[in-house]
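## retry 2 of 3
previous attempt timed out at serialization; input unchanged, resubmitting
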Amino acid sequence: MLDLIIRGGEVVTPWGVGDWDVAVQGEKIVAVTSPGTLTDDVGRVIDATGKVVIPGGIEPHAHIAAPIMGPGNLKTAPPEQVSRAALFGGTTTLMDFAIQYPGIDIGQAIQERTSVWQGNSYADYAHHLMLLGELPTHILESLHEHIEDGFASVKIFTTNIRPPEMTGEPRMVGMGHLHDLMEQIQRHNGMLLVHSEDDDMVQHMYQKLAVEERNEWWNMHLVHSNESEDVSFRRVLRVSEWTGSPVYFVHVSAKEGIQAIGESRAKGMPIYGETLHNYCCFNADNYKEENGMKYHTYPSLKSEEDRQALWNGIVNGALNTMATDEYCTSWELKIQGKTVRDVTGGHNGAETRVGITYSEGVSKRGMSLQRFVDVTSANAAKIMGLYPRKGVIAPGSDADIVLIDPNFKRALRMDDFHITDYSIWEGFPVEGWPVMTILRGAVAVENGELKTSLGSGKFLPRKVNPEVTNRPAC
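## retry succeeded, writing output
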């Protein structure tokens, strides 16, 4: 007896899009077949007529219960809040960061994340490692143990991001340490995530704007500039050429970043790039609105030309994933900073990522459904070592399944959201939206109601396929 059949929908699979029936037994998909070929001996049949059926979304870049840069000891929203909202938005897996600060080892960083997440998530989850500042030899030498244990990805920064008085713990990894880290990543088949900006240029612009008395937040794109992204990406890529290390550039924000990634992939290098759906939908002119700092995520919004280039990259293949850089705070904190030096970055995007990408990509730009699945789920699963357990509707994969209603056509309202007290997407017109989410065979969201319980989410250890780390595989 089958537990669940999803029938009548337009099902998106790696081998095509069709009107197939999807059968679920326990937590797994057991069959994808022609209509009418499955037994009627089933626990429940879901009628997906008129809906698009996709694998659950994978959010590859989220800062959850994370320290907020700046004064005080504030943190972003915790797993129970973000994972609940994510399920409403069609995302079934979240990936955040176990942060290795100076003075603690990687094992302690993992223990901290375990204590935060275990039993406190509605969605499945995994952790990248994050290494800050100078990288001691003992940290680099221990890295292989944690990659072997299923923590397959490591993030670093090439900048401290904010000016010294707002930075807190130094984040920037110098080029020498980056080289040594890349050697370890290449040797042990990991994936390196890089927040890539040129710190000299960033810090110079903070100082220059202060002298010129142009500190207003709407000048943020002059600090975190196209030139900075271009110079830094190319430095990182040169070290990648020397070491053979794969690189996944987080939050690509400029056309120059896209170009640098494309040139390296053309050489056969294992280079990948994500962008953010807010970068694709807003530009630096939006900063000039009243409370326009609400749009800011580091590095920064760029020009309208860059915005269009990012959409082109997502639709046509120059970029690999759509992420959010989830960093959920209250409205009061989000608008508290008024200058380039003290604005709080990030936004609450995990709930809107899948729907906005469908609406803007598929409905309005003609992106294929298979490409839509690639950028919201499959590519993240492949690059981060979750495929084919996650990111695909196929026999043997987890039954993480989302139904999208393409006839959902209206402006988003605050009661459409399930986290915090504001959204940059309030009033945004959409065409198509997730209406049902299934996590490992169990209906998690249906008819606008949460059907699952806190703690139902599982931790996911990961191993990256060597094909992904040795060539541009997706």
